[in-house]
Structure formats: C-alpha cells, structure tokens
Design brief:
eight-stranded mixed sheet; seven-stranded parallel sheet; translocase; about 15% strand
Length: about 800
C-alpha cells in the first residue's frame, strides 16, 4: 500500500519514478567540507591518493565523499571547471544506479565522468554509451585530462575504429562508444571462429548518455547484423511500370500510410504490361514480390524524409534524430527497390545473421545508470523495461526561460505563413532563433520560405551533419537564425554569444536570449521539452513557442477530428479549448502508441533472447574447448580416425570446431528468419480477430519453442555430415569446398519491429474509416456530424459506451478519461 501511495504521489507531481535527493544532498555537503584538504596536494600527490583508494568492492560512503572531493579538485585543475553541487549530486545518483535528469547546460558530461571514474576506482569497467560517434569521441577527448589526473584509463570507439583499435579500447577502464557500435561488436563477436578475433569485453557498468534517446527512442529499432549474399536488382520494366500507376485507381494506401496494395484494376494493368502473366501464380512469385517492393518504395518512402541520396548512394534517415542512419538499410529487397527508384547502383542483398534489441544489450550489464535532460516523462518506462529510477537534479540557477502557449492553426499553409511571419518579426529585433523541424524535407521547404521573406539563416539537417556541432554552437549569436532537423546537434551546448560567449552575449541576453521555435509538436511531449531545453541554459534568459495545425500528421494520425467545428480568426489561428484539446489528445495517444511499440518489441524478444542464450552457451563451449572434436569423433569414428591419420590431430580439431560453429550459426540464422516470418503471420491473426482477439504473443511463443526444440541437435547432425566430406589442406579446413563458408561483408538493417502498427493505430484507423467524411468540418458548415451505429465496425455496434471504452487500448482509454476530467 505504501509503495502504491508513493507511486500515486509521484504521478501527482508528474514525476513518476523519481527519488528523494535528500541523502545525496547531505553527502554533497560532506564532499564540500572534505574538499579543503585536497587543495594543498600537488598533481602527483592527488593521483597517488586516488590510487591508494582503489578497491575491488566498490567505494563505501566515506570513500565516495573523499573521491568526489578529489575529483572536483581534479576537474578544476585539468579542465578549468569546478563542479557545482548539482553535478556532485548527479554523480552520486549515477554511482547509485539512477538515471539522472539534469537540464541542458548543467554539466552532465562532467558529472558522468566523475561517476565513471568512481566506478573505475571501485574496481569496475565502464562503457559510457552515447548516441553517435561525434559525442563519444568528443567527450572522451574532452574528459581525458581529468581521467589522467585521477589515474584512470579512458578510450573511445567509433564507426571507423579497426578491430585492433576496438579491442584495445574496450580494455580501458572507461570506454566511450555509440550504443549501436557496442551492439554490433557484440553481434560480430557471436560469429567469430577464433577467440582471438573477439573485440568486446565482458559487460560490467553501462553509463548511458542521452538515456531517454538510447533506452526509449533507439530501443524501438533492433540492431540487426546481416551478411552479404548476392546482388538483387529489380527489372527495369517493373520500376518504370510502377511509376505509371495511379493512386486510388491502380493502388490504395491504408489509412495510416503504412502499406500500399494493388487494386483489381491495378493488378490487371500490371499483368497486361508484363505480358499477360498471372501475378498470383506460384511461378510468378518473384515478379509479384518485385512489383510490391517497387510500389512500396515509389509510394510510401519519401526522399529527404525517409532517406537521402548522397554520393550516389541511398542513406536512411534516423527518424528519432533527423540524421543519417549510418550503415543501415532496408531488408527484403526494399533497399534495392529504393535504389532502382533513385537510379543509383544496387548494393548487395543479404540475410539476417543475428539481432539484438537495445533492452537485451543493456540487460547484459550488471549495473546500469544514465543521464539526460528529459527523463521524468519516461520514468515509468525506465522502471518497467530497465528497473531504474530517475533522480531529478535541480538547476544550479533557476530556469527563467519563457515558454509561450502553442499556436494552433486550421491548415498547414496557414501555420507556415504565420510561422515565417513570426520568425521574420523576431529576427528583425536581432534575437537569436533556433527552429526545430521534423524532417530534412520540411527544413528545406522552410528554408525556401525564409529566403523568400528575406530572412538570412543557416540550415542544419542530415545533409550536413558533419558540421552540425559547429553550427549549433553558434546558434546563440545575435541576428542568427538556425534551422535544424529535430534534435540535430543534441549534446552540443548553445551559449549566448556563440561558442566562447564573446560574440554579442550581453546583447543576446538583453534581447531575451535564444528563442526556440518548433514547427510542429512531436509524438512525445518529451521531444518538445528537449527542443525547448536548448534555450535558457544556466539561468540565461530564453523563450520557446510551438506552431501546429489540425492538419499536421500528429493530429491526422492519432486523433479523430470529424465533428470538430473549429472557429479560426482571419489568419486561421484557433484558440478554442476543444481544438487545442484535440492537439494535446493526439500527443498523448502518440506517446502511448510508442510506449506500446517498445513494450511489443520487448515482449517478443524475451523468448528469443532465452533461446539465443542456449545457442551461445553451446557455441562458447565449442569455441574454447574440444567439445566439437569429442562430439564429431563419437558420431563419425571411422571418418575421424581417417582424418587424424592423414593430418595432425590439432588441425582436425580446428576443422571440427569451424564446422560445428558454422552449423550452429546456420541453424540460428534460419531460426531467426523463421521467427521474423512468424511475427508477421502472428500480427495478421491479430488483425483478422478485430478488437477482441486471441493473444498473438502466446501463439508466437508456442511455435517458436516448437521450432527451437531440436535446433542444437540438428546442428550437430549437420556437422557430422559436413565432416564426412571435409576438405583439409596444408592450411587447414577449406571452408568453401567443405560447404561451410563464413559470411563476408556485414551491415545493419533498419527494422520496424511492429510492421502492422500498434493496437492503437489499428483501432484509430478503423474508427477513422467508420466516420462519414474524413475532412475537417469547415467554418461555414456548422452542421454537427453524428456517428451512426451502422458507421461503426461490426464488433463495436452492440456495445454501450462503457463497454466500448473497455475494448479500447489503455492509452486511448486514459486519453479519453483525461478529456472527461477537463470537461468537469
């Protein structure tokens, strides 16, 4: 009962999962008192004192106080920065396994370095997990003088790091690395045929920078390692044919814009142009697949929104950051279809070798902590998925940023017109402006509009991400207008007056500080808060405002506007509570839908992770012992004796090991492919069942267990068969001739782990389709739109209001309950 009341109290304060900082604040006071004794130490003496504190059991309370006092002194000497009390509180919370929320500009990087060094002094190895290469390298090099003075080794891993560099970097006590690189190193290490080829180290402590982005946003996209197989070009006649098809006539797009399908007329047209074939005949399955992926690429994937074309290659865009998703591509021929659409060389196709979710990757670490500027909003999810609590550290100076109310318009055109006019008006005062857009396409369209309005500006998007940090760092200079995609440049401090504050800081402050303008609300209030947080650092003045419209994707996808009678002013602006409530409602539903997607990813991966652990355990035994030799010698004694007689026994043992590893990996790869197909089929069952449906996860688990039951035994059987025809030469096993080749090139796939959308998406789609007329009611038309029972999906018709509410997903029920409360 006490726990439940505490949870409700935190929810009332809008701080679910947050903890009391009182104990940390008391320790911080003690750290300040202990700091006086460290001032008289030389650098060498300080390093020596820290070395004497080293222990294998972690620092006790007195040890933490003494260490942080020394670390604060070391930070001032090595970096010229003396940590605020808030940074000491943050470091203490990190050392206790919390996710720390600290506002932008409050010094998370230094607090994280203190904590990482504290873990190292306590005998632990730390991976500081960042969101990208730039931040990992920057922070490692920035904090290196501090670590050196404390006697702690530090390194970093990046996309360009060689296997030798990675292996050495992971041996350091503190290693900074993008979470994706750590994940891919883990996946690659699972495929090695020799222990010496491994690069990663045993996981110990994960300190996650930008924790909400890594643990929540990135977690919806599993990390997938694929191996090259062949080139997969589309027939040019299919590509050209698809371009001639007409929307609504030859093909239809579903209500959520997630899938596209040929109509009967479209099918007839395609079959006629392809020589009168029957697309649905088994003999034409390949051609049907090509038509489908070409249609998907042509209609649903948008250049400068979903991908960029640069240097003759297609680059996917990471939707959560608006940046290029390096080394990522679409699976199942879709990559080739987009490449054909853009007339660039088609890259190799491949098959999934293995995958890992961010949750599973993080769960490998016995200790988890993290830091970010926005953690409270996802506090419950952090508890649910990672079992960590949030510590909210107050700012060193009060936040005086002025956050204006959202400005809502009827149409996108009216919004954009008002947006540009407002930016021009503010710019004429000289106040620095940072504009956050949702996509590369939107940033470039806004750039054109600003240019037409004679507003000088700089554009920061995925096309010039190499310079993003330098551009963002100067966004606080007077007269500057910076247009960015979402959170491009996140992690870079924006100081008034530029990077060193010398370029008009006082004038920028007098003008009201940095002014953040959002071109639309994000799917999560947390993302809006991240953008707002770029202004008002360290007690600086600042301001923010968001423009939105009822035609924005957020509203059209996650809310139902039929029946709404908006009354805009002559500029199209809406101020009535119902219209604004629709916008807020859509954002809450979107937040819930994304939470469900993460929950779905996790629920479906649990069994897979358990099965993977069994395979990895067997694989490890094969890799480090003579298990393969023992098994295969017993299974094929005559062939084994024959090979040992012809070759040195150590060579035959090595061949047996490689053969066994190949077949374990091969069987696992096939199982992963089966599970992927199974996931798709399971969701089709869910769709077919309507709102009241069987639990697809139960059926998935049953079939997955059945498929896995004999996997390891089958791998040993395959290995014995391969041994019978093994080709062994002077250099050992000839893997190609034996039929057990290792994968060549590898890359990652960008996977949507819920291809049919969330349950909320599906029900919203059904309700939208049920409403007669899907356009907003115009100002002139004041006739109420009523929903007749015949317009509802069949399974909803006989339900009263309470029963209907019970059938809605949780996030929709909560949203409706919130609306009811507001009306009261």
């Amino acid at each position: 009962m006490a726990l439940k009341l505490t949870s409700r109290f935190r929810r009332l304060l809008q701080r679910p999962g947050s903890i009391d900082l009182g104990p940390y604040e008391k320790l911080t006071t003690a750290v300040g008192e202990a700091g006086e004794s460290s001032k008289g130490l030389t650098d060498e003496e300080l390093t020596e004192v820290v070395a004497e504190m080293r222990t294998e059991g972690g620092l006790d309370e007195d040890g933490l106080i003494e260490f942080l006092a020394l670390a604060r002194e070391a930070g001032e000497r090595a970096l010229g920065e003396r940590a605020f009390d808030g940074q000491i509180v943050g470091a203490l919370a990190l050392l206790q396994g919390r996710v720390v929320e600290m506002a932008t500009g409050e010094g998370k990087t230094l607090a994280g370095a203190f904590a990482a060094a504290g873990y190292a002094i306590g005998g632990r190895k730390v991976h500081v997990l960042a969101v990208n290469d730039y931040l990992a390298e920057r922070d490692a090099e920035w904090m290196e003088p501090l670590y050196k003075l404390l006697g702690v080794t530090v390194s970093h891993v990046g996309q360009a790091s060689t296997p030798e560099e990675r292996r050495a970097a992971y041996q350091a006590e503190v290693c900074y690395a993008p979470v994706s690189e750590v994940g891919f190193d883990v996946l690659r290490d699972r495929l090695v045929a020799d222990v010496a080829d491994r690069v990663s180290a045993e996981p110990d402590v994960a300190l996650v920078d930008e924790a909400d982005s890594v643990l929540i946003d990135e977690a919806r996209v599993p990390l997938v390692l694929a191996g090259a197989t062949r080139s997969e070009e589309l027939d040019d006649d299919v590509v050209q044919l698809v371009r001639t098809l007409r929307a609504g006539v030859d093909y239809e797009i579903d209500g959520d814009g997630r899938s596209v399908a040929l109509t009967d007329k479209g099918t007839d047209t395609v079959e006629e142009h392809l020589g009168g074939i029957d697309l649905y005949d088994d003999a034409n399955l390949d051609k049907m697949t090509q038509v489908n992926v070409a249609l998907h690429a042509e209609v649903l994937l948008r250049r400068d929104v979903d991908y960029l074309v640069r240097d003759g290659k297609v680059h996917l865009i990471n939707n959560s950051r608006g940046r290029i998703a390096k080394l990522q591509r679409w699976p199942d021929g879709l990559q080739a279809a987009v490449e054909a659409k853009e007339a660039v060389p088609v890259s190799e196709s491949g098959e999934v070798l293995d995958s890992i979710t961010v949750q599973a990757l993080i769960k490998r670490y016995p200790k988890l902590c993290g830091m970010t500027g926005t953690a409270v909003v996802v506090g419950e999810q952090l508890q649910e998925f990672y079992d960590v609590e949030v510590a909210v550290v107050p700012p060193n100076k009060p936040n005086i940023r002025i956050d204006e109310a959202d400005r809502l318009y009827l149409t996108v055109d009216q919004k954009n017109k008002a947006l540009v006019a407002h930016i021009k008006e503010v710019h004429e005062t000289g106040r620095p402006i940072l504009i956050g857009t949702h996509s590369v396409e939107e940033s470039e369209q806004l750039s054109d509009q600003l240019e037409a309005a004679d507003v000088p500006h700089v554009v920061l998007n995925a096309k010039n991400d190499a310079e993003e940090a330098a551009i963002v760092a100067e966004a606080g200079v007077p007269e500057t207008v910076t247009v960015s995609t979402q959170m491009a440049g996140r992690g870079t401090d924006i100081r008034l007056g530029g990077r060193d504050g010398s370029n008009g800081r006082e004038r920028a402050a007098e003008l009201g500080g940095l002014y953040v303008v959002g071109t639309g609300l994000h799917a999560s209030r947390r993302l809006d808060d991240q953008l707002r947080g770029r202004a008002g650092r360290q007690g600086d003045p600042g301001g923010s405002v968001f423009f939105a419209s009822l035609a924005d994707e957020l509203v059209t996808r996650y809310s139902i506007t039929s029946g709404l009678r908006p009354s805009p002013d002559k500029e199209g602006r809406l101020t009535d509570r119902k219209a604004i409530g629709t916008l807020e409602h859509a954002q809450r539903v979107a937040d819930g839908a994304n939470a469900e997607l993460l929950r779905t990813t996790w629920s479906y991966s649990r069994l897979t992770e358990q099965q993977r652990a069994i395979v990895l355990d067997t694989r490890e035994k094969v890799l480090v012992s003579d298990l393969a030799a023992e098994k295969l010698a017993a299974a094929s004694k005559e062939r084994w004796d024959e090979l040992v007689e012809a070759h040195d026994e150590s060579v035959v043992k090595d061949a047996a090991r490689r053969i066994a590893l190949h077949h374990l990996d091969r069987r696992w790869t096939d199982h992963v492919a089966y599970l992927a197909d199974l996931r798709e089929g399971i969701h089709l069952r869910s769709l077919a069942g309507g709102i009241v449906h069987q639990k697809p996860i139960d059926e998935f688990n049953k079939l997955a267990i059945e498929s896995f039951r004999t996997l390891v035994d089958d791998a040993w059987t395959d290995a014995a068969e391969s041994l019978a025809g093994a080709e062994i030469g002077e250099s050992g096993l000839d893997e190609e001739k034996t039929g057990v080749p290792r994968p060549t090139a590898t890359w990652t796939y960008l996977v949507n782990d819920n291809p049919f959308g969330t349950e909320a998406d599906r029900i919203l789609g059904r309700l939208r389709n049920a409403v007669k007329g899907d356009e907003l009611v115009t100002v002139e038309d004041d006739t109420p739109v009523e929903l007749d029972e015949d317009d509802l999906p069949e399974e909803l018709r006989d339900l009263d209001e309470d029963e209907l509410a019970d059938e809605l997903p949780e996030e929709l029920r909560e949203a409706d309950e919130d609306e009811d409360e507001k009306r009261k």
